[in-house]
Write a structure and sequence with these properties.
The complex is a heterodimer of chains A (493) and B (381). Chain A contains 18 helices and 24 strands. Chain A is α/β, with parallel strands linked by helices and 493 residues long. Chain A has two domains: 2-239, Rossmann fold (3-Layer(aba) Sandwich); 242-490, 3-Layer(aba) Sandwich (Rossmann fold). In chain A, the strands form six sheets. In chain A, strands 15, 17, 20, 21, 22, 23 and 24 form a seven-stranded mixed sheet that branches. A six-stranded mixed sheet of chain A has the order 6-9-10-3-11-12, sandwiched between helices. Chain A is globular. The mean pLDDT of chain A is 87. The longest helix of chain B is centred in the middle third of the chain and has 28 residues, at 147-174. In chain B, strands 1-2 form a two-stranded antiparallel sheet. Chain B has helices spanning 7-10, 18-23, 26-30, 36-40, 42-50, 52-74, 84-109, 117-135, 147-174, 178-196, 230-248, 250-260, 262-267, 272-297, 310-320, 332-351, 356-379; strands at 202-203, 301-302. With 381 residues, chain B is an all-alpha fold. The model of chain B is unreliable at 4-41 (pLDDT under 50). Classes of the chains: A alpha/beta (493), B mainly alpha (381). Chains A and B meet through helix 2, strand 8, helix 4, helix 5 and helix 6 of A and helix 1, helix 5, helix 12 and helix 13 of B.
Chain lengths: 493, 381
C-alpha cells in the first residue's frame, strides 16, 4: 500500500491554500505531518477525504489514480480519516455509528445480529471488547469515542489512516494506548499519516516527517536524524526572536490574587499575578484551564475560594463587575462566543464598554467610531473600516478585534484563552507584541495555551494544570517541554 | 464492498485469535476509560443499552399515571372520568393529534420542524369533501355510497404526502431552515383550503356516506370485538410500523444520524437531502391520514378553518414524549404517551369542571414543567 500525492495545489478564490505539495506514505510507515495552524494541513486532509478536489496535481493509491468524489468513495477506496473533533452521532449506539453508511439490510431492515457480530469482532481485534455495542456514544469517554471512530474506519476496509491531532483531547494514558494501537495497525501494513504540532508526540509515534508552511513543503526527512530546532525553524519560517518580540518590562505589585481558588478539592492554585507579568497556563484539553479563566471572569461559578482583584472588595463577581474592575477575557472560541460575527468591527470592539460612548442612553457614534478606528490601527487590523462585518475578516484579524475589545475596556488584567489558535504567523507575532506592550505598561496577563513554544516564547512564569489541579507556577527558564508534558499527563489516569 | 470485520487489515481471521492474545499489552486488559457507572457495571450498561428506549419513556409514562390519578381524585364524586366509556372517548380524541404527531416525531428526530400540519389537515378535509361531492353523483349505481368516499380518502392521504414532499424538497433544495419553509407553507396550504372551499364549509351529500364511515371514530365500536374505534386501530398500526422503521430499518438510523450530527452522516456517505425529503414525505402521508380522520371526526365536512394551531399541540406532544427540538431524540412510544397526556388533560379538565381559560393555563404549565423535569432527569445521568 502506497499513498502518493504529487504537486497538489488548491486555491480558494485569491487564497492559495496549497502550492505544489507532495507527500508519500507507504504501508508499514507512520509519517508525521507537521505545521502551524493555517499551513495547509486541513486542506490536504479535505482533499484526501474527497470533501474538496485539488486544482492541479495527482494522487495515487498503489499506482492507481485516486480522485474521490466524496467521503463515501474515499472510504470505499480504503482511505479513512480520524478527525480532531469526534465525528460521531452522539444519540446513536456504538454499533449504529460504526456501521453508519454501510448497513447490512434485508428489505430495508437492519440485520442487527450480523452488525453486532462485526462490531464485536472489530472491537475485540482492537482489544476493546469492553465497549458495549448497544451503548449510546454520548455516554462514552472521549478516548472510547475515538476508538469507536477507529473501529468505524477498520470496518470500512481502511488501508490508509489519517489521524488529525488525535491526542488533543486525550489524557496521558489514553494517548499512550492510542499510540500502541496505531503502532499495531502500522505493523500490520497500514499506511498512516499522523498530523500534530506536538513535536515530542510526533517523535514518539512516527519515523518520517513532512513539514508544511504556508501551503508549501518546507521540510521532509527522518525524525531520528533531524533536530528539534531545525523542525521548528521549518514550521515557523522565521527567526524565533522575530516571532516573539521582547519588550523590556518590570514586575510590579500584585494585582490578581487566586491563592485559595480551586477547581480541585485538594489543590489551591496558589497563583498571584503581578503588574507587568505574563503567566502561562499549560495542560491538556480538559485540564481545567478554560474553566479557571472563566471562573475568574465570573462566567462560571468559582467552586471554592475567592478571586481578589487588587483595590476591590474580595468577592466572586459576574462579568459586568469584573469588567469594571479592569479584568478582560478573550474566549478560546471566537466564532461562537468571543465575537458577534454578523456585527461590525466597531460594534464588537466597543460592546463591553458602551457606556463610555453614551449620553442619556444615546450613543455618540462618531466618538465610538473614532476610538474603534484608533484601536484597529494600533493592532494593525486589516479591514476596509470599522463598519465592516467581523465575519468577513480572516482568523488573525478576528482575533485582533477580540483583543482590541479588551484594550477598549481599559483592562489591566488580561485573561487570554488560546489567543493565537488557528491564525497566521504574522498575526501571531503582532499579538505577541501587543501582549508584551501591555505588560510593559503595567498589565498582568494570564494565557492558557496548548501550544508550548508560544508559552515558552512569551511567558515570565508557567503553571501546569492537570484534571483541575494547578501545579505551582515556576519561572519559564526552569521548565522544558518534556517537564511540562510530564506534569500535564501525570495525574491523568 | 461489503463491510467486514477488521481482519483484512490485521491479516488474520477473527477466530482463533491466539496470536492476538500474545500481542496483548497490559493496557489492553484495562480497556479504555468508560464513564463511571459503565466501567464498574458492564452488565448494567448493557441492560441500559438494550432497554434504553424504556428508560427514555419512563418519565412521560409516570407523568401520565400521575395526571390520571389526579383527575380520578378530582372527579371521585361523579366517577365519570374513570369509566371505560370515557377512556374510549379519550382514545378517539387522541387519534387525529396522534397520527399527525407520529409524522412530526420523524421530522423532529431528523432535527427539523413542520409548522404546516394544521393547514395541511384543513386542506385535506376540504379536498376530500370536494372530491366526494363531485364524484359521487357521477358514479354508476352499483358503486354509489362508498366508492367515491373511499377513493377521496385515499387521495386525501396522498395529498398530505405531496404537501410534505414539497416542504422537504424546498428545505433541502433552497437550503432554507425548515422553520421558515413550513411557516410559508402554513399560510399557503391554509390559503389554498380557503380558496378551494370559497371559505365556506363543504358538505357531502348524505347518500354518499358509506355504512362504515360513521363508525371510524365512534366511541362505542361496532362490532364490539374491536374494543376501540377503528380509527384508534389505525393509529396503533401506524405507530407499530413507524416504530419498526425507526428502530430496525436502515432509513430509521439515517433519520437519527442526520438529526444527531448532520456532518457525520454526510461523512459516512448518507445522502442528507434525500433523507430530509423522504422524512417530510412520509410525515406528510401521516398528516394526510390525520386530515382524513379529521374529515371523519367532522362527520364528512370539509372545513378550511379546522385544526387551527394543531401543529403546536402536535409539537408539544412530541416534546412531552421526549423529543428534542434540536433533533436526534424522540420515540414513537414517547410521542403516543405525550398525546395521551394532552387528551387526558383536556378531557379530565372537562370532567373536573375546570373552566376553559384555566385549562389553557394548566396545559401550558404542564408542557414547560414536563420538558424541564425531563432535562433535569437526563442531566443527572
Amino acid at each position: 500500500m502506497r499513498l502518493e500525492m504529487r504537486d497538489v495545489s488548491k486555491s480558494f478564490g485569491p487564497t492559495r491554500a496549497l502550492e505544489g505539495v507532495s507527500l508519500a506514505v507507504d504501508g508499514g510507515e507512520i509519517r508525521a505531518l507537521i505545521g502551524e495552524n493555517g499551513a495547509g494541513k486541513s486542506t490536504l486532509m479535505k482533499i484526501l477525504s474527497g470533501a474538496i478536489r485539488p486544482d492541479t496535481g495527482t494522487i495515487t493509491l498503489d499506482g492507481e489514480p485516486f480522485a474521490p468524489s466524496g467521503p463515501r468513495q474515499a472510504r470505499d477506496r480504503g482511505v479513512a480519516m480520524i478527525y480532531q473533533e469526534i465525528a460521531l452521532a452522539p444519540d446513536l449506539t456504538v454499533e449504529a455509528n460504526i456501521m453508519l453508511g454501510r448497513e447490512l439490510s434485508t428489505y430495508g431492515l437492519v440485520r442487527g445480529r450480523a452488525h453486532r457480530r462485526i462490531v464485536r469482532e472489530t472491537l475485540e481485534l482492537l482489544d476493546h471488547p469492553d465497549i458495549h455495542p448497544a451503548i449510546k456514544v454520548r455516554s462514552l469517554s472521549i478516548g472510547a469515542q475515538q476508538l469507536v471512530e477507529i473501529a468505524r474506519a477498520l470496518t470500512a476496509n481502511a488501508r490508509v489512516l489519517v489521524l488529525d491531532e488525535p491526542t488533543s483531547s486525550l489524557t496521558g494514558r489514553d494517548a499512550e494506548r492510542l499510540f500502541q494501537l496505531v503502532e499495531r495497525l502500522r505493523d500490520r501494513g497500514m499506511a498512516i499519516v499522523y498530523i500534530s504540532h506536538f513535536l515530542e508526540e510526533s517523535r514518539r509515534i512516527a519515523q518520517t516527517f513532512t513539514v508544511l508552511r504556508d501551503g508549501k513543503n518546507a521540510a521532509d526527512g527522518l525524525l531520528a536524524q533531524t533536530s528539534e530546532e531545525a523542525i521548528i525553524a521549518a514550521m515557523v519560517g522565521r527567526d524565533l526572536n522575530e516571532l516573539f518580540p521582547q519588550v523590556p518590562r518590570t514586575i510590579g505589585e500584585p494585582i490578581l490574587d487566586l491563592r485559595d481558588v480551586a477547581l480541585h478539592p485538594e489543590s489551591q492554585s496558589g497563583l498571584v499575578l503581578h503588574r507587568g507579568e505574563v503567566v502561562g497556563l499549560a495542560g491538556l484539553v480538559g485540564a481545567g484551564r478554560t474553566s479557571l479563566l472563566r471562573a475568574i471572569y465570573g462566567l462560571d461559578p468559582v467552586r471554592t475560594g475567592v478571586v481578589r482583584v487588587a483595590g476591590y472588595p474580595a468577592r466572586n463577581a459576574g462579568p459586568a463587575e469584573r469588567i469594571r474592575q479592569g479584568v478582560g477575557f478573550a474566549s478560546e472560541d471566537r466564532k461562537t462566543e468571543g465575537l458577534a460575527l454578523s456585527r461590525s468591527i466597531e460594534d464588537n470592539i466597543t460592546l463591553s464598554a458602551l457606556d463610555r460612548h453614551s449620553q442619556r442612553g444615546f450613543l455618540r457614534l462618531g466618538q465610538r467610531r473614532a476610538e474603534a478606528a484608533e484601536l484597529m490601527r494600533k493592532l494593525a487590523v486589516k479591514a476596509r473600516g470599522p463598519r465592516e462585518r467581523v465575519g468577513n475578516l480572516s482568523g488573525g484579524n478576528q482575533q485582533k478585534v477580540a483583543l482590541a475589545r479588551l484594550l477598549h475596556q481599559h483592562a489591566h488584567v488580561f485573561l487570554l484563552d488560546e489567543p493565537t489558535r488557528g491564525i497566521d504567523v504574522g498575526s501571531k507575532a503582532e499579538i505577541y507584541r501587543m501582549i508584551g506592550e501591555q505588560a510593559a505598561q503595567g498589565a498582568a496577563i494570564l494565557i492558557a495555551s496548548s501550544y508550548l513554544p508560544e508559552l515558552f516564547g512569551v511567558c515570565d512564569r508557567i503553571a501546569v494544570m492537570s484534571r483541575g489541579r494547578i501545579f505551582p507556577a515556576r519561572p519559564t527558564h526552569e521548565w522544558t517541554e518534556h517537564k511540562v508534558m510530564e506534569l500535564a499527563t501525570q495525574l491523568s489516569s | 464492498m461489503p463491510p467486514a470485520p477488521a481482519s483484512h487489515i490485521l491479516g488474520q481471521t477473527p477466530r482463533p485469535r491466539s496470536d492476538v492474545t500474545t500481542t496483548r499489552q497490559p493496557f489492553l486488559r484495562q480497556g479504555v476509560r468508560v464513564t463511571g457507572s459503565e466501567a464498574k457495571l458492564p452488565a448494567q450498561a448493557a441492560l441500559r443499552g438494550t432497554l434504553g428506549w424504556v428508560w427514555t419513556v419512563l418519565g412521560p409514562f409516570l407523568g401520565l399515571i400521575l395526571i390520571t390519578g389526579l383527575f380520578a381524585y378530582l372527579t371521585r364524586e361523579t366517577g365519570s372520568f374513570l369509566t371505560l366509556y370515557n377512556w374510549r372517548i379519550i382514545a378517539v380524541q387522541t387519534v387525529v393529534v396522534g397520527v399527525a404527531a407520529l409524522g412530526m416525531t420523524l421530522i423532529m428526530i431528523s432535527g427539523a420542524i413542520d409548522l404546516s400540519v394544521g393547514s395541511t389537515i384543513a386542506l385535506v378535509t376540504v379536498v376530500v369533501a370536494l372530491i366526494v361531492k363531485r364524484l359521487d353523483p357521477a358514479m354508476p349505481l352499483a358503486l354509489k355510497g362508498g366508492f367515491a368516499l373511499a377513493l377521496a380518502m385515499c387521495s386525501g392521504v396522498l395529498l398530505g404526502g405531496v404537501c410534505g414532499a414539497i416542504n422537504g424538497a424546498l428545505t433541502a433544495g433552497l437550503k432554507v431552515v425548515p422553520f421558515i419553509i413550513t411557516l410559508g407553507s402554513y399560510k399557503v396550504y391554509r390559503g389554498l383550503a380557503k380558496w378551494l372551499s370559497s371559505s365556506t364549509t363543504v358538505y357531502v351529500p348524505s347518500d354518499a356516506k358509506a355504512w362504515w364511515f360513521s363508525r371510524i371514530l365512534a366511541a362505542e365500536p361496532e362490532p364490539r370485538w374491536l374494543l376501540v374505534a377503528p380509527g384508534v386501530w389505525v393509529l396503533a398500526l401506524l405507530a407499530l410500523v413507524l416504530a419498526i422503521v425507526l428502530r430496525q430499518s436502515v432509513f430509521g438510523r439515517y433519520i437519527y444520524a442526520v438529526g444527531s450530527n448532520e456532518a457525520t452522516a454526510r461523512l459516512c456517505g448518507v445522502s442528507v437531502p434525500r433523507v430530509r425529503v423522504w422524512v417530510y414525505a412520509i410525515a406528510g402521508l401521516a398528516t394526510g391520514l390525520a386530515g382524513v380522520l379529521q374529515f371523519a371526526y367532522l362527520s364528512a365536512t370539509g372545513d378550511s378553518t379546522t385544526a387551527d394551531g394543531l401543529e403546536l399541540q402536535v409539537i408539544a406532544a412530541v416534546v412531552i414524549g421526549g423529543g428534542s427540538l434540536s433533533g436526534g431524540e424522540g420515540s414513537v412510544l414517547g410521542t403516543l404517551i405525550g398525546c395521551l397526556i394532552m387528551s387526558v388533560l383536556n378531557n379530565g379538565c372537562v370532567h373536573a369542571r375546570i373552566p376553559n381559560p384555566a385549562q389553557d393555563v394548566i396545559i401550558g404549565v404542564i408542557i414547560v414543567a414536563a420538558v424541564t423535569l425531563d432535562r433535569i432527569r437526563r442531566g443527572s445521568r
